[in-house]
């Protein structure tokens, strides 16, 4: 069978427009992979708010954030090692530029975020470690108090609470831990946290879960930590914070340690034995309700990218090596959980394609393969909640940070939210490396099953056989690095008044189903009668 640009490929009695890249190529079908939705066994459960997103604390307050790639070349020639507004010890003008606070009242932003509910909204990030909460209705100080690097006002935090209520999101956060929160002996004190929690409660808000600080194993002065911060200092802080949280907000889950950069390609560069996760957990003992960690398996082009030992390229974005990189990270943190916090649920409280704001292709269909594969794999590995970084900031945002227009990963998230239930199933047939197959119960349909089939081969169609009729939802793009995506051959885009398009599947007969090159397909089988999905 030969497929050329803009030809149609027949599958199961329907037509799908298949667009390849460059000149003609041959699409050779792999041997069929057969999946029987009725007999798939359950292997776990995820939270009903499994697919979540992060809104950086700096987005709420405004400040220096990752510079868009379109602006970086303009500043590169004149960049200082530490430009205006940068944090002590960090690159300045080359990497950052000022961004105003996000408008959480924007109707489009609220409408699109609400379509992803129910969910968790994490308001945290590196900048949260040193953000002062101005607990007054009057004007905030123009300069942060000593020991802090940013200011959060009551009005700004109320905007977060109002947004969360409007979009059916529960809030996850972390607390200020910088020198401004500490006494003369350098021990963390709860005054700022107490004021923050009291105000939240006074306006009808709720903190569903919280980490003490963002990424304690990567503590440095530039990230808000006191000088010389180590595992012993962290343990003293946790000894003060844990009873405070349980007394002040007993309904709030305590997440931790919230570490990053270990167990994967970035690990060697970021490791620090004084504040490594193992040392942190040994020092604190079993205190967490949930074991949390972050996944970044590459540095973006802003931070060296492919020129570093832990970078990547667009050419590798569909490779088995790239898609499998997060597995070693989860295995590492799972082993620590089993040693120090046995039986505690696993949450990934921050994740994206690459650290430092994401790669240029994070906003394109090319990254959607990673986005969905990573969520599906983590569900298989027992992770209950995954927080994507971010909703609408930098290149890895689900939405464009200027227009709030949906990016391909947003449409993927929307399909996941509509189709994937909370019971995780295990396909019995092991997929080929470039055909990755996952399954969960069909959302809100008793006995129904959803199959997720990712064909990461750029040139070859694959074949998946189902014994039942299904509804098919296939995502493709004319070019992999397009910012627009098609569903069953039709471009997904907002309608009048930012209305969402109907996400309609194509009726597909039982038997072999052709999966086009570089495509992502959800197959729903409402009549699967799977006993685990009752």
Task: Describe the protein's architecture and organization.
By secondary structure, the chain is α/β, with parallel strands linked by helices. The chain has a domain at 2-43 and 425-533: Golgi alpha-mannosidase II (Immunoglobulin-like, Sandwich), CATH 2.60.40. It has helices at residues 57-61, 69-76, 107-114, 154-166, 191-202, 231-248, 267-270, 277-284, 320-340, 368-380, 408-419, and strands at 2-3, 7-11, 14-18, 25-26, 33-34, 42-45, 51-56, 63-66, 96-99, 119-124, 131-134, 150-153, 169-173, 207-211, 253-259, 290-295, 346-351, 383-389, 420-425, 435-442, 449-455, 462-466, 470-476, 486-487, 490-491, 506-508, 511-515, 519-525. Strands 6, 19, 20, 21, 23, 24, 25, 26 and 28 form a nine-stranded antiparallel beta sheet that branches. The chain has an eight-stranded parallel beta barrel with strand order 7-10-13-14-15-16-17-18, surrounded by six helices. A three-stranded mixed beta sheet has the order 5-22-27, with no helix packed on it. β16 (290-295), α9 and β17 (346-351) form a beta-alpha-beta unit. The longest helix has 21 residues, at 320-340. The relative contact order is 0.15.
Q: What is the overall number of helices?
A: 11
Name of the CATH superfamily of the domain at 2-43 and 425-533: Golgi alpha-mannosidase II
State the name of the first-level CATH class of the domain at 2-43 and 425-533.
Mainly Beta
* Fraction of residues in helix: 10-25%
Topology (SSEs and partners):
Blueprint: E1 2-3, E2 7-11, E3 14-18, E4 25-26, E5 33-34, E6 42-45, E7 51-56, H1 57-61, E8 63-66, H2 69-76, E9 96-99, H3 107-114, E10 119-124, E11 131-134, E12 150-153, H4 154-166, E13 169-173, H5 191-202, E14 207-211, H6 231-248, E15 253-259, H7 267-270, H8 277-284, E16 290-295, H9 320-340, E17 346-351, H10 368-380, E18 383-389, H11 408-419, E19 420-425, E20 435-442, E21 449-455, E22 462-466, E23 470-476, E24 486-487, E25 490-491, E26 506-508, E27 511-515, E28 519-525
Parallel strand pairs: 5-22, 7-10, 7-18, 10-13, 11-12, 13-14, 14-15, 15-16, 16-17, 17-18
Antiparallel strand pairs: 1-4, 2-3, 6-19, 8-9, 19-20, 20-21, 21-28, 22-27, 23-24, 23-26, 23-28, 24-25
């Amino acid at each position: 069978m030969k497929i050329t640009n803009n030809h149609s490929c027949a599958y199961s009695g329907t037509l799908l427009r298949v667009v390849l890249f460059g000149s003609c190529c041959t699409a050779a079908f792999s041997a069929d992979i057969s999946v029987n939705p009725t007999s798939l066994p359950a292997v776990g459960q995820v939270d009903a708010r499994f697919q979540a997103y992060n809104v950086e604390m700096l987005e709420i307050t405004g400040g220096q954030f990752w510079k868009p790639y379109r602006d970086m070349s303009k500043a590169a020639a004149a960049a200082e090692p530490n430009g205006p507004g940068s944090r002590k010890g960090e690159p300045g003008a080359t990497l950052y530029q000022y961004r105003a606070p996000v408008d959480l009242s924007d109707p489009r932003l609220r409408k699109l975020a609400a379509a992803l509910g129910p969910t968790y909204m994490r308001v945290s990030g590196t900048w949260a470690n040193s953000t002062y909460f101005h607990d007054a209705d009057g004007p905030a100080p123009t300069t942060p108090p000593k020991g802090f690097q940013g200011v959060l006002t009551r009005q700004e935090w109320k905007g977060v609470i109002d947004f969360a209520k409007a979009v059916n999101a529960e809030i996850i956060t972390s607390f200020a831990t910088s020198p401004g929160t500490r006494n003369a002996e350098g021990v963390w004190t709860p005054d700022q946290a107490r004021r923050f929690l009291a105000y939240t409660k006074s306006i009808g808000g709720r903190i569903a879960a919280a980490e003490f600080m963002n990424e304690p194993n990567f503590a440095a002065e530039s990230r808000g930590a006191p000088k010389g911060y180590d595992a012993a200092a962290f343990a003293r802080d946790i000894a003060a914070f844990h009873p405070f949280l349980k007394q002040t907000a007993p309904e709030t889950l305590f997440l931790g340690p919230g570490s990053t950069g270990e167990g994967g390609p970035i690990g060697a560069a970021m490791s620090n034995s004084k504040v490594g996760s193992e040392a942190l957990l040994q020092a604190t003992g079993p205190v967490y309700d949930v074991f949390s960690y972050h996944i970044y398996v590459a540095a973006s082009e802003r931070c060296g990218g492919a020129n570093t030992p832990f970078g990547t390229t667009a050419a590798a974005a569909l490779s088995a090596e790239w898609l499998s990189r997060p597995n070693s990270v989860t295995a590492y943190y799972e082993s620590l959980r089993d040693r120090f916090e046995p039986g505690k649920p696993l949450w990934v409280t921050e994740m994206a394609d690459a650290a430092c704001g994401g790669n240029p292709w994070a906003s394109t269909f090319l990254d959607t393969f990673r986005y969905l594969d990573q969520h599906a794999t983590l569900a298989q590995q027992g992770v209950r909640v995954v927080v994507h970084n971010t909703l609408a900031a930098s290149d890895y945002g689900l939405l464009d940070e200027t227009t709030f227009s949906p990016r391909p990963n947003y449409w993927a998230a929307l399909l996941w939210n509509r189709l994937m239930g909370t019971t995780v199933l295990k396909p019995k047939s092991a997929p080929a490396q470039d055909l990755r197959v996952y399954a969960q119960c069909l959302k809100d349909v008793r006995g129904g099953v959803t199959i997720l089939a990712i064909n990461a081969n750029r040139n070859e169609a694959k074949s998946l056989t189902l014994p039942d009729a299904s509804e098919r939802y296939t995502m493709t793009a004319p070019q992999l690095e397009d910012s627009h995506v098609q569903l069953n051959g039709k471009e997904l885009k907002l309608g009048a008044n930012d209305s969402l398009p109907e996400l309609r599947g194509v009726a597909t007969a039982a038997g072999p189903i052709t999966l086009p090159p570089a495509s992502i397909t959800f197959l729903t089988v409402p009549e699967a009668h799977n006993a685990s999905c009752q």
